Known about the structure:
The protein has 338 residues and is an alpha/beta fold. 38% of the residues lie in helices and 17% in strands. It comes from Thalassovita gelatinovora (Thalassobius gelatinovorus).
Amino acid sequence: xxxxxxxxxxxxxxxxxxxxxxxxxxxxxxxxxxxxxxxxxxxxxxxxxxxxxxxxxxxxxxxxxxxxxxxxxxxxxxxxxxxxxxxxxxxxxxxxxxxxxxxxxxxxxxxxxxxxxxxxxxxxxxxxxxxxxxxxxxxxxxxxxxxxxxxxxxxxxxxxxxxxxxxxxxxxxxxxxxxxxxxxxxxxxxxxxxxxxxxxxxxxxxxxxxxxxxxxxxxxxxxxxxxxxxxxxxxxxxxxxxxxxxxxxxxxxxxxxxxxxxxxxxxxxxxxxxxxxxxxxxxxxxxxxxxxxxxxxxxxxxxxxxxxxxxxxxxxxxxxxxxxxxxxxxxxxxxxxx
Length: 338
């Protein structure tokens, strides 16, 4: 579930250049609502519940930004996008930011004219197969039919992996994760491939998850994160530092349970700067002093968001792994708030 590749790059870049001249922060404030692009539905990351209320790990990033800018975590219009439509939606200004399991790559950053403002999930592409298929490695998939979302880095990685291992496959193209799940369960393909996190999320919705296995190979690096258009640095800063606030909050021990107490002031200057009791960080962003406090309160710090939506106690069951704090052997590392 990742990105449009090169087709239409000039069109997307041209759209982005035209829209970026406008100030997105002012637009969002004037509109009173954040337009946030998300996936069409991936349980744990972004999906509407029975009442149409969007929930998930990526949704939490949207709500944090809305809370920081507008003071209301619910002031978000969630815009479902596919692998093919997401970049046009962002470039055209239909959405203010994209928070949708999208991989940071050179061409997307440079050629499509987007700014990836950070990584909220370090991932890698994997494969899921029915146990009945009897394979224990992706290298045993010679001749397999593979369900693959079009317009994604997954598509390119798949071709590279099979070519480098001198084996063949037959692609079964799909547009959305829901379609992929349906086709896979119906036996239209032997294997489903996407980010390992997406495989875990998809398998968790199956009636008999134990009948399916995620193969051990991780065949790519997939740094997933929110992105904005090139050319609007002020807006990029707001989204970037809202995400950084969630990461730093976990490292510094700021939680939804103690944030009110810590907001009265502490002996840690960085906590004070984040929560607005010292310094002028909010003013530098064009926001008020409580912007980061509201971002954190929207759904908790990074760790709280992770555990609630996709962690080991959820049906998705993801371990922190690379997404642990740098102090715990992971890759999460927020720059200093100073």
